[in-house]
Amino acid sequence: MALENIRLEVMKTIESKVDGFIDQYLIPVDDIWQPTDFLPNLQGEEGLENVKQLREEAKELGYDFWVVLVADMVTEEALPTYESWLMDVEGVDQQRRADGEQNPWSKWVRHWTGEENRHGDTLNKYLYLSGRVNMREIEKTTQHLINDGFDIGTGRDPYKNFVYTSFQELATNISHKRVGQLAKKKGNKMLGKMCNIIAGDEMRHYMAYREFVKTIFEHDPSEMMLAFHDMMKKKIVMPAQFLRESGEGIAQAFENFSNAAQRLGVYTTYDYIEILKKLNAYWEIDKMRALTDEAEKARDYLMKLPDRMTRIADRIAIPQDQYTFKWVENNGII
Ligand SMILES: [Fe+2]
Ligand SMILES: [Fe+2]
User: Fold this and answer.
1) Long-range pairs for 305-313: beta carbons < 8 A, 24 or more residues apart
2) Looking at CB atoms within 10 Å, which of 129, 136, 139, 309 has the fewest?
3) What's the pLDDT at 334?
4) Where in the sequence numbering do the catalytic residues fall?
5) Ligand 2 centroid distance, CA of 163 (Å)
6) Which ligand is nearest the CA of 76, by number?
7) What is the pLDDT of residue 142?
8) What residues have CB less than 8 Å from 69, skipping those under 6 apart?
9) How far is the CA of 112 from the centre of ligand 1 (A)?
């Protein structure tokens, strides 16, 4: 049987578990938080007071902080790219079945998207109300990013895609959590809560995607190992890899943002390595037996990779020069 067909078979076999994953890792609409729960409610008089307080609190945040928050928000706002990508993965079928029910995988993708959509929404409204950033420039960046799409090197392969999403969900959990901590430290209570609650969603999503991979490992260990190896070998690229400013090509913006995130300690190379270690441990790749020779080698590579990456990371210095983004210029922040 061709490889893709085996993958399709495995995806079909796991289908029966997906409703359970949705129940376990996602929260029904009526029970989950909404952006408004954490933003000033403008329907009442006190809403305007809360906006004033939000703007007061926002005065203490530094330049790198705003750059990182904007890029985090833009990354979340490019959700159409991620949903359409995942909808195209082998085994995910957008068509409803003859009985009118959704294909379980596409139902997962839709419900996951519904949860994710609240993240960009929350941060966008916060940034708008803060008055500290150039919203029009940011909006252009978001539109560019959606236009440019991404290429995360997974193709339509569900195994590789679920490695990617496992990795990314934990990466976003870490970065939102750290941004929230920094905000809180500077007295930004509202923003601290927003980032924290978003980080909580990302954690649930991470736990779901790593479970998908673990389940696939039970059915097709060698191929799953090779897919994991392939993704780590070419490195996990960030969803905002094509980030750009208005009037600029895709070149520097992502790197400058990433440098700001490293300087702040919001997301660093060491976090990347930590995530890899966590995935290795959760999937218990060291205990996996009955692998093909090739998969055995892939496993050895993955086991050694965290140490190898740490040695390299120790030698690389983080650039200290601050780049001026159009998103955050002329607001009096140095
Ligand atoms: Fe998110
Ligand atoms: Fe997420």
Assistant:
1) 305/232, 305/276, 306/273, 306/276, 306/277, 306/280, 309/269, 309/272, 309/273, 309/276, 310/270, 310/273, 313/269, 313/270, 313/273
2) 136
3) 46
4) 33, 76, 116, 119, 169, 172, 201-202, 205
5) 13
6) 1
7) 97
8) 123, 127, 179
9) 10
Of the listed ligands, the closest to the CA of 171 is 2
Distances (CA, A) of 139 to 70, 126, 131, 144, 174: 10, 14, 14, 9, 25
Low-confidence residues of the chain: pLDDT under 70: 1, 3-4, 251, 330-334
Which residue matches tokens 């392969």? Answer: 157
Q: What are the tens digits of pLDDT across the range 56-103?
A: 999 989 999 999 999 999 999 999 999 999 999 999 999 988 898 999
Distance CA 276, CA 282 (A): 10
Distance 204 CA to ligand 2 centre (A): 9
Q: Alpha helices of the chain — where are they, by DSSP H?
A: 3-25, 45-57, 63-77, 79-87, 104-130, 135-148, 158-185, 189-219, 221-233, 253-264, 269-282, 293-315
Per-residue pLDDT at 274: 98
Q: What is residue 3's predicted lDDT score, i.e. its pLDDT?
A: 66
